[in-house]
Amino acid sequence: MATGIKDKVAILGMGCTRFGERWESFSEDLAVESFIECLADAGIDKNEIQAAYVGTNFDEVNVGKSAVPLSVALKLPYIPVTRVENYCATATEALRAACYSVAAGVYDIVLALGVEKLKDTGYGGLPGGAARGIKAHMTQANMSAPGMFAQLATAYSAKWGLPMDKIKDAITHVSVKSHANGALNPKAHLRKAVSAEVIKAAPMVAYPLGLFDCCGVSDGSAAAIVTTPEIARALKPNQNIVKVKALSVSASSGEEAMGNTWDGAHFTTTRVAATRAYQEAGIQDPRQELSMCEVHDCFSITEMVTMEDLHISPKGGSYEDIMTGFYDLDGDLPCQVDGGLKCFGHPIGASGLRMVYAMYEQLLERVPDERKVKNARLGLTHNLGGMPHQNVAAISIVGLD
Amino acid sequence: MIGICSYGAYIPRFRLDRKTIFQAIGWMNPGTGALAKGEKALANFDEDSVTMAVGASLNALCGIGRSQLEGVYFASTTMPYKERLNAGIVAGALALDGEVRTADFSGGLKAGTTAMLSAMEALAAGSLAKVMVTASDTRLGKPGSPQEMIFGDAAAAFVVGDENVIAEFKGSFSIAHDFADHYRGQFSKYDRQWEDRWIRDLGFEEFVPEVVGGLLNKYGLKMEQFSQVVYDCHYPAARKKLNKVLGVPEGSEQSNLQAQVGHCGAAQSLLMLADALDRAQPGDKIMVVSFGSGCDALYFEATEKIQGRPTQKGVAQCLGEKMLLDNYTKYLVWRDIMPVEVGMRSEEDLWTRWSAVWRSHKLVLGLCGSRCTECGTAQLPAQRICVNPQCGAVDKGEDYLFSDKLGTIASFTGDMLAATLNPPAISGQVEFSGGGKMMFDLTDCNLEEVKTGMTVSMSFRRKYFDQKRDISGYFWKAVPVVEGR
User: Fold this and answer.
1) Those residues with Cβ within 8 angstroms of residue A2's Cβ, 6 or more apart along the chain or in another chain
2) Quick check: A125 and B417 in contact, CB under 8 A?
3) Do B356 and A125 touch (CB under 8 A)?
C-alpha cells in the first residue's frame, strides 16, 4: 500500500541564481552557478551525487534536447542524468523525480536542477508557436501566454458576477504586493515597488491584463540536492532539516478544453492536486496550517484564481482576501514572499525549484528580517504548466522536521 | 427542369469609403476623385477568394443537405493556389466527402458564368444532380489607381439542380474574344488595364449587344420580356447607353452594386444575379450577362417555388452587416501592399506539414469533430477516447459537424502580444449548442463589443500565410452574431 512521500526525503542543500536578463550567461553558466551554491549548501562532494534530473523547457532557444548539455556543463561523473520537461511545471517534476528515486531507496543523494535561458529570442514574452507542435499550428487560436490566461478574468467575471473593474482592483493589488516583495530580494529580476496607479495605467497586453499583470521573462537556474532524512541529520546535526511533506501533480484530462463542464474560471488540475497534496501532507485546514506559499503567478489573474483552487480562499471569494492583505508579506498567509514569478522572474524550467528555494530559505531563517515570514514552519509551492484549459499543476509542500 | 435551387451572397463585413482612399492617396492621381463615391467591400485580413466562396456557399445551402451536392465549381481570378485545387478546399470546408466533382474556373472575368453554364450542362446531361457553383474575387488595383477605387471583394454561390428549382435555366449564348482590357500575368499582384475609352467603346458597347442579340435571336425572345437584366459593366455612362441600345425595359436593369460593393471580378454578374433573385417573382425572365475575354448570356425563368422559399442570405442581408474601416493603411497592410513590423515573434518558422494537414482534413477544412455513440457527447477535435469521464468509450465516435452550429462565448481576450495583422488578436472559448467546446480566434468584430454569453457562428478563414513557401493555411474562426448590423 502506497504511503506517499511525506517525511521520506529531506532537502540537503539548495541553490538559486539571481534571476533576470542574464545577457552574459548561457544556460550552462546559469546551471553551474546554482549547482555550485547548492553543492556548497549541501556540504557534500560532487561525486556523492548518484543521479540527477535536469529540467528545461524551451530547448529550441536553450540547451537543445536531452540532459547531456547539462551533465557535461556540471561535469557529472557518468551518473544517470535525465532531462525532465512538463511546461512551466518542469522544475517541480525534476524535484519529484529526484525525491521519488530517494524514497524508493534506489539512491541516497540525488540532484534536481532546473534552468532556462529565455533572453536569446530577441523579443519580449515567451517563444511562441513552434513549441506547441504542428497540430496547434493548424488549429490553435492565435494566443500568447497572456492571451490564454487573460481569459480567466472574463470567465471569472461571468461565473461570479464580479465586475471587471473589481477584478482589476484585485489583480492590481496582487502585483503591488509582489513588486513590494521582489524589491526586497537581491536575487529577484524586478526590484522596484510599483503603485496601483502605475499598474492600472500600464499598456494593455491582453485584456484585462496590463504590462504589470504579467511576470518577468527571465534567465535563471535553481537546484536542490535531496537525500534521506537520516543522511541529512547525520550530515547536518546542528541545523533544522527541511523535509518534503507532499508532491502532487495533476494533468488535464481534456475535459476542461473539450467537455461541457468547465467554467473557464478555475484550474481543475490545481484543485485536484491541492486536495491530494493536503491529504499526503496530513493537512486538514490549509488556510490555518500553511505558513506561506509561492504560487504560479505567471499573471496576476492566475494568482487570484489559484488562491481559491488551493482551497485557501473561498470559491468566488479571493477578492476579499486579496484586498484585505491576507496574502501580503505581513498578512496571515504571505504569498509570493520572494516576489513570485511576477518579480523574482520566470525562467520556465527553473521556476518550480525557485519556489521551493524561497520556502527553504524562510524555513531555515536565512532571510533578513525585512522579508522574513514569522514562524515559518510549512510552505506550499504551486507550479503550473500550460494554459488554463489544458495544463499540469504541480504542488509541493515542504516543512521543518 | 434544371436551374437554380438556392443562392447566397457573401460580402465581407468591412467596407472602405472611397473618400477615405482618396484622402489618403488621391494626391497621386487626382483624376480618381471622380470615382471617390460610395464604398467598396473589403475582405478582412483573414479572408481570400476561397474563404469568401465558402461563406457564400454556406449561405446558399440554406437548408439543403450538403450530402446531396455532387459537384463544387469554383470561379475566381484570385485563387490562392495555382496547383492544389481551390474548389477542393471549398468542398472540404463544406465537409463533402470524396465523391464529388470539383473544378476551378479562372482566367477571365466571365469564369463565374462559365462555371454556372458548365454545371447546367452537367445537370442537363444527367451526369450530376446537384452542384454548388460559387464565384469569388479579391482583385487588387495599385494604390492610387482607378482599379483600387472600382474593385471590391465579394462572392456569390448557387445550388443548381434538377429538383425544387426556383429559377429555371432556359438557355445561353456565349462569345469569346481575346480582348485584353484587363490582365494579370502569372507573377502579377495588381491588375493592369488598357485605356478606358477603348474598353468602353469597343468592349462593352460592342460585345454586350453582340451576346445579348445572339441570345434573343437563338430563343426568339425580345428584350422587353425580361423583368430583370443583369449585365456586368462598371462604367455609368456606358450603362446608360447600353440600356438604350439593348432596349432594357424601365426598371429591369439590375444594380451593379458599385456604390455598395465595387466590381467583384468573376463574381460580379453572379452577385448581381443573387441580388436580382431576391426580388424575382414567379414567371419573371432573368437575363445574366458576364464580361471578360468574351461574354456569356444566360437566361432564367423564376418558378412558383421562388415564393415561400426559406429566407436566403443574399445581397441585401449581407449589405446590412457592415463595419466601416476608416483606415486606409490597414487595408494596405492586410493586402500585403505595405510592409509592416509585426514583431519578431511573427517570424518564427512554422512549417505546414502536408501529411498532417491531410490526416486532419476533416477537422481543419470541415470543422468536423466527433460525437460519442455511447453517451452522445460532442467533442472537438474528434477524440478516440470519449472526453466524458463518465463514459470513456474507445473508438465509438461518429463524425459530427461543428461548422453549422452556433456557439456562445465562455471567455475571451484581445491579445496585443500575439502576432497578427489586425491587433489585438481576439480569441475566446466557444461552447457549441449541442455540446462541444474549443478555443477559437474571433474575427469580424471589435474587442469592445465582445461579451461572454454572446452568440457566435463559425466562419472559414485563412489562418496563416506562409510567405516563404507561399502557403495559405485555413481553419475556422468564430464571428459574433450582432443583431441589427
Assistant:
1) none
2) yes
3) no
Nearest to B321 by CA among B102, B428, B94, B479: B479
CA distance B249 to B94: 39
Locate all alpha helices (DSSP H) within A236-331, ordered by sequence. Answer: 255-258, 268-281, 286-289, 300-309, 318-323
- Which tens digits make up the pLDDT trace of B155-169? 999 999 999 999 999
At B9 the pLDDT is 97
Q: What is the dihedral of CA A120, A124, A129, A130, to 10 degrees?
A: 0
By C-alpha distance, which of B96, B85, B18, B25 is closest to B57? B96
Mutation target to probe the B interface, by most B beta carbons within 10 A, among A121, A135, A258 is A258
The nearest CA of chain B is from the CA of A65 a distance in Å of 19
Nearest to A253 among B389, B418, B437 (CB): B389
Under DSSP, is residue A15 helix (H, G, I), strand (E, B) or coil? strand
Shared-domain flag, residues A150 and A289: yes
The residue whose grid cell reads 493548424 is: A138
Pairwise CA distance, residues B367 & B364, whole Å: 6
Which residue(s) pair with B298 in the sheet?
Answer: B172, B288
How high is the pLDDT of residue B418? 93
- The reply to whether B355-367+402-480 shares the fold of B3-334 is no
Q: Give mean pLDDT, residues B91-100.
A: 94
Q: Are B452 and B431 in contact (CB under 8 A)?
A: no
Q: How far is B133 from chain A (nearest CA, A)?
A: 27
pLDDT band at B324 (very low <50, low <70, confident <90, very high): very high
- A20 to chain B, closest Cα gap in Å: 20
| Contact between chains at A206 and B414 (C-beta distance less than 8 A) | yes
Q: Is A106 on the interface with B (CB under 8 A)?
A: no
- Looking at the fold, whether A300 and A332 belong to one and the same domain comes out as yes
Place of cell 516583495: A181
Q: How high is the pLDDT of residue A307? A: 98
The distance of A393 to chain B (nearest Cα, Å) reads: 19
Spell out which residues of chain A touch residue B447, defining contact as CB-CB under 8 Å: 207
In chain A, residues with a C-beta closer than 8 Å to the C-beta of B403 are none
Q: Is A325 part of the contact surface with chain B (CB cutoff 8 Å)?
A: no
DSSP character at residue B204 = I
Give per-residue pLDDT as tens, A347-363. 999 999 999 999 999 99
Percent of chain A with pLDDT over 90: 92
Angle at A259 between CA B390 and CA B364, to 5 degrees: 130
**At A95, which amino acid appears?**
L
What global pTM score does this model have?
0.95
Q: Is the dihedral of CA A278, A280, A284, A289 positive or negative?
A: negative
Residue A253: its chain B contacts at CB < 8 A? 387, 389
Fold classification of B355-367+402-480 is: OB fold (Dihydrolipoamide Acetyltransferase, E2P) (2.40.50)
Q: In A130-258, which ranges are E strands?
A: 204-206, 209-210, 220-227, 242-251
pLDDT at residue A8, as a whole number: 98
Nearest to A263 by CA among A388, A136, A93: A388
Determine contact, residues A172/A195, Cβ cutoff 8 Å: no
| pLDDT score of B484 | 54
Q: Which CATH architecture has domain B3-334?
A: 3-Layer(aba) Sandwich (3.40)
Residue A286, domain CATH = 3.40.47.10
Domain that holds residue A20: 10-121+219-235
| CB-count exposure of residue A163 (10 Å: 0-12, 13-18, 19+) | exposed
Per-residue DSSP letter, A129? G
Check A138 against B389: CB less than 8 A apart. no
Nearest CB to B348; choose among A130, A258, A263: A130
Contact between A125 and B435 using a beta-carbon 8 Å cutoff = no
Element (H, E) at A110: strand A110-116
By the CB < 8 Å criterion, does A204 face chain B?
A: yes
